Amino acid sequence: MARLTPAFFDQAPCELARALLGKVIRHRYHDQGRDHWLACRIIETEAYYLAERGSHSSQGYTPKRAAMFMPPGTIYMYYARGGDSLNISARGKGNAVLIKSAVVHFDRTSPRDNLKLMQRLNPVKSSGKLRLEAKLCSGQTLLCAALGLKVDRWDQQQFDTQHFYLDDVGYRPGTIIQTTRLGIPAGRDEHLMYRYIDYAHAAQCTSNPLRKRNQQEDRDYVLHPLSATG
Description:
With 230 residues, this protein is of the alpha+beta class.
């Protein structure tokens, strides 16, 4: 395992979005007198550039968007559909990568005993029931809820190896799916293929292009073997 350094994030957004697939997010969460390293492995990302209209930063600098104009590796968090959302600034002012979805990760640092806590942090809102492990981090606000990440704590902050950091555990996707981003309004560069998905976990991503009706390979999405994506 190797904790990601600030230099890792000094990549163009699309390059960073691909490179982040398979990396593990770890957040130290205090509960009932104990600290727990909650963790998930990234399976879906979206890249955003200052120059394209789908990005928050394309609307100009504001104090709330300041993190996108700060050095690569700065945490940018905002509220999306009533939940917290995690982004990381990339190379170039106004550029960033959105962490779109993940899968729960367990190892010696983050043992399986954490599952019940993560489920308690992220219940099914309509019923209060425990969310299934397979769907616990299947969305940008879901993964933040499961990890206990909050806008008011981490927006515009740097990663902190004592509390919140990203880890390279040696996992690499065998194939990456490249497709269009989600939720981009018409006329705001919605056609750009800036979303990246770990093929092995496509069923757990926010929206699986392989299962959508009328979606065609090489038109609506592209498959990249690892050797082709680096």
